[in-house]
Amino acid sequence: MTRTTGTADAERDSRDTERAAELDSEHDARDSVRDAGPAACARPLRADALRNRNALLTAARDAFTERGSEASLEDIARRAGVGVGTLYRHFPNRQALVEAVYVDEVESLCRSAGGREETDTSWDVLVRWFDRFVDYVATKRALIDEMVATIGMDSPVFRACHDAIFAAGEPLLAQAQADGLVRPDVTFSDAIRIVSGVSMIRQSTPEEIRRILALALDGLRYRP
Fold first, then answer.
1. Which pLDDT does position 38 carry in this prediction?
2. CB atoms closer than 10 angstroms to residue 51
3. 138 and 62 in one domain?
4. Which of 7, 85, 137, 185 is the most core-located residue (most Cβ within 10 A)?
5. What is the 8-class DSSP label of residue 155?
6. Is residue 7 part of a domain?
7. Residue 2 has what pLDDT?
8. Residue 37: which pLDDT band, with cuts at 50, 70 and 90?
9. Which domain holds residue 85?
10. Is residue 129 a contact partner of residue 191, using CB atoms and an 8 Å limit?
11. By C-alpha distance, which of 35, 13, 53, 214 is closest to 127?
């Protein structure tokens, strides 16, 4: 049966409304993380200062992931191609840098929830986001001990990041369930526990982690 123009327009408007709601949720999530982060009250940076800060965050993430608490600020500055003085201008102490790296990783994870290709199904989008979540877990594992020791598990930063992750990821799972691609009895907490557990497997290569993750996520699929 041929759909009327009015029906097609209504369906398109509904999709646009749903997508707008998803974007609003992603923006709210990122805003809440930024508000809780160490640079919440900082002035806007010049272009060169912003480049240096981003380079320091990237270098710090790599260094902490590779060496954990043994990573030195001098090595991080060297990796970023800046002097130690520049590092301290952006991050007055090690705690500020560790916290900024964690918040930046959460923001990146939340932003990735909005990426989709025209041919993607909601399952494709969900699986790709969980794959990105593996990278977040690796960074968190490298930083968590230092963060707990300095700011404690009850810190507003942890709560804001937790809420932001759920606000970004839950709509992806809900859409896949609405499309009949994921079992209706799966909660977002269930899925996060599965992905986190796989991500924490020790003595495995990144390729092995991804293969095991794909097998685990396949159990979420809806099979009539």
1. 52
2. 14
3. no
4. 137
5. -
6. no
7. 46
8. low
9. 43-92
10. no
11. 214
